[in-house]
Specification:
alpha+beta; 4 domains; five-stranded antiparallel beta sheet; 10 strands; binds heme C
């Protein structure tokens, strides 16, 4: 056996190749085994083990025959100089040494093929992993990753929405990914990353792997809690019965059609719209009904000269454009933090002061955390010295929570401010549904896309203190 290795590595290049291959294989297998027992090495260990080291592994393998060839040339040159000529080795399986060498060679080849198979499989897994997409290019994807990590989809992989099943989108995404690696390294990428994503895979092929229209049936009760900016941070609630919708007739007859909000994605109809590139200004809408008839709605205001426009078929993402990269606004975050008690509601004017503190511009998250905590502490020290003393811990906790809120929504290094990424669900914070439902898109037959408040939800209570409906529902 040792003679076999000696003959393989007589040339220094072969020796180096064998060393390189063996060392890479040992590290790859070690990282693989560590992974099996649950040790996670962070986003870079997978990249190292399954994308970088395999390069060295293959390089080493290639160097071995190259070294053998050089060795052969060297021996031929020596022979020309009069040294004894060595013929080609004779492969005779009757010789035990040859048999052993052959078996060793075959065994090693099988082992190498298995390692390469493992590497190929794990390499693709690495390229598709959430840490690779979200953390490897650190500052660039930090905002998307942070927002994603706090969302209902935090356990859904990036690739489930951004690539989906099948080989063609995998290849497409890796091609565009290769350009992204270049643009990150050469610092060519735009800040913030523009939205919408114009080449996103149609939601039918991604979201519908886990959600499907037939599943959305009926109304959903939503209770939204807000706090006023008065001294008592008065609590007000809106109670809505949201008509999420579903199939109107579920007997499966052709032409059965949904009602309510998810009617837009019924398989029997199609809605297309003409908008500017940001999809915020919608100029025309075309509805194709189940019976094939077409209704065209247009508004008086036309695109400006030179404005880039595009037609698009509506799908999930035209309403749920922020299913997972959810950046919230200061009031939404503050209301939520006060409601769950992370910010103490008994601090006078905490809503108003929190809003003010969050809207200051800071150059970095560190500066923001420090500045916001100081601003809150300074307010209570100056205006409510008694509170500052007796509720020092609550004031500090509020300052800290506000700093956290800032750091998960505003990203100075990527030029992401409050509201940079609009959310199309609803209409209170951004135009959302009212991009179409503003009573101004009209058809020739006089139909319009309505803003009637009861079309999408029943308003059971609107900004009320202790709404009666909640007392009835929860006696
Ligand atoms: C639940 C589905 C889903 C998951 C999971 C998901 N995304 Fe997204 N992503 C979207 C949608 C939808 C958009 C916006 C589409 C639009 O408005 O055009 C988007 C947009 C983006 C954008 C463009 C900037 C923006 O916010 O509009 C980036 C970058 C991005 N995603 C990266 C990631 C990364 C990295 C991960 C994993 C950490 C991830 N996404 C996970 C659905 C998803
Ligand atoms: C791999 C499966 C998967 C994919 C793909 C997926 N989702 Fe989800 N989605 C889930 C799960 C699981 C939940 C439930 C989370 C929970 O209950 O907290 C969810 C919840 C939601 C919710 C409710 C959120 C809330 O506030 O409770 C919406 C809306 C949603 N998804 C939209 C989308 C859209 C739009 C896409 C495509 C861009 C998508 N999902 C892709 C698994 C998925
Ligand atoms: C016309 C806009 C619109 C379209 C298109 C749309 N949705 Fe929704 N969807 C909504 C609204 C509005 C809600 C209710 C949100 C709320 O009140 O929290 C909702 C709720 C949901 C929920 C949560 C349901 C629950 O029981 O709480 C899921 C999941 C969801 N949508 C997935 C999808 C998927 C997947 C698609 C594409 C196949 C889609 N939606 C298309 C507007 C839309
Ligand atoms: C791209 C334009 C567009 C957007 C954006 C849009 N809608 Fe619509 N919506 C329509 C059209 C077109 C109709 C049909 C109007 C008609 O009846 O003539 C409609 C009808 C509806 C209906 C009545 C469905 C039925 O049962 O007949 C509801 C409910 C509705 N939309 C809710 C919403 C909600 C909620 C949002 C935002 C999350 C939204 N829409 C966003 C275009 C849009
Ligand atoms: C095209 C559909 C549509 C129409 C028309 C519509 N809304 Fe809404 N509205 C929504 C959706 C979707 C939400 C988000 C529900 C949620 O918060 O889960 C919403 C949320 C609200 C909220 C709660 C916001 C919060 O967070 O407290 C109020 C209040 C409201 N709407 C009032 C109105 C009034 C008043 C009208 C009539 C002028 C109206 N809406 C018309 C779709 C609509």
């Amino acid at each position: 056996m040792s003679r076999f290795f000696a003959s393989l590595t007589r040339h220094p290049l072969s020796l180096l190749g064998a060393a390189l291959t063996t060392a890479s294989a040992v590290v790859i297998l070690a990282i693989f085994l560590f992974g099996l027992v649950g040790f996670e090495g962070g986003p870079y260990s997978g990249i190292l083990a399954y994308l970088v080291l395999p390069g060295f592994f293959v390089l080493g393998l290639a160097m071995i025959p190259l070294g053998l060839r050089l060795q052969r040339q060297r021996e031929a040159a020596a022979a020309a100089g009069g040294a004894p000529v060595k013929g080609l080795p004779v492969i005779d399986f009757n010789v035990p040494r040859i048999r052993r060498n052959f078996l060793t060679f075959t065994g090693l080849t099988v082992a190498n093929v298995m390692i390469l198979g493992l590497v190929g499989y794990k390499g693709i897994e690495t390229l598709d992993s959430t840490p690779f997409c979200g953390q490897a290019c650190h500052s660039v994807m930090d905002p998307e990753f942070t927002a994603y990590s706090r969302s209902p989809h935090a356990r859904v992989h990036c690739v489930d929405c951004h690539i989906g099943p099948g080989a063609d989108w995998f290849v497409k995404s890796k091609l565009s990914g290769a350009w992204q690696v270049v643009s990150v390294n050469l610092n060519l990428y735009p800040r913030p990353i523009p939205t919408p994503v114009h080449n996103l895979r149609p939601a039918r092929e991604t979201c519908e792997q886990c959600h499907w229209p037939e599943k959305f049936v009926g109304d959903r009760l939503r209770v939204r809690t807000h706090y006023d900016e008065d001294e008592a941070n008065t609590e007000k609630k809106s109670v809505l019965l949201v008509k999420v919708g579903g199939l109107k007739r579920q007997d499966g007859v052709a032409g059965s059609i949904s009602q309510g909000i998810h009617w837009h994605i019924d398989r029997n109809i199609q809605i297309r719209y003409l908008s500017d590139e940001s999809r915020e200004r919608i100029y025309e809408v075309e509805l194709k009904r189940a019976d094939g008839s077409i209704e065209k709605y247009a508004r008086e205001k036309k695109p400006e000269a030179g404005e880039k426009t595009e037609w698009r078929t509506m799908d999930c993402v035209d309403c749920h454009n922020r299913p997972t990269h959810i950046y919230r606004l200061p009031q939404t975050e503050l209301d939520a933090a006060i409601e769950v008690g992370k910010i103490d509601r008994s601090l006078p004017f905490i809503k108003r002061e929190g809003m003010k503190a969050l809207q200051v511009d800071y150059p970095s998250h560190e500066a923001a955390k420090e500045g916001i905590a100081e601003q809150i502490a300074a307010f209570y020290a100056a205006s409510y010295p008694e509170v500052a003393r007796s509720k020092q811990a609550q004031v500090e906790a509020a300052g800290k929570e506000l700093g956290f809120i800032y750091s998960v929504n505003v990203f100075p290094s990527m030029n992401i401010k409050w509201g940079t990424y609009p959310n199309h669900i609803g209409h209170q914070e951004f135009p959302g549904c009212f991009r179409c439902h503003d009573d101004e898109l009209k058809s020739a037959s006089g139909r319009k896309i309505e803003q009637d408040c009861t079309q999408c939800h029943s308003l059971l209570a609107m900004e009320e203190e202790n709404p009666e409906i909640l007392a009835q529902l929860n006696p």
